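Our preliminary data section would be incomplete without showing what the modeling component actually yields. Below, a chain of 160 amino acids is followed by its predicted structure, encoded as tokens that our downstream tools consume directly.
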Amino acid sequence: MFNVGMSELFVFGIIALLVLGPEKLPEAARFAGKWYAKLMHFVNNAKQDIDRELGLFELREQVQQEMQRMAELEQKMQSQLAELRQQTEASDAKQQLQSSAIEKTAKFNSLIYCDLLSNQAYYAVFTSHYLQKFLQHQPLSNDYQTEPKASSPVKLKVIA
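Predicted structure:
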């Protein structure tokens, strides 16, 4: 601590012996030893306090770094969550458009099919009328309608 070597201690002891004398030297040595012990105790306590404070300071820095990392991760997660929401909404909108297009196409196709069915039924009746006359050897006449009726097409509900 004080960088005092053996030769320096020896010189210090001779000077103390000459100044204090042999009677007071042991008492002075005891007094100096007590103060040296108190000084060393104070220095050690100060070192421990400084080390403890430095340790707390380092710990605080580590905690702050971890909190900063957590905040960055939270930001990343929030941005990814927002992206997922946008993708989901876009996908839902696309599916809605596709399903509405499919539904409209299905309704249109069912209307066309029903119209075709009604025309086929008319032609079947028309054909059966002339077939009966032919089989009965009757002359074919225009007593039956030659054109199909202009009827509204049958509308069906499409259940998706």
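Residues 104 and 158 are 10 Å apart (CA to CA). Helices lie at 6-135. Preliminary results of this kind motivate Aim 1 of the renewal.
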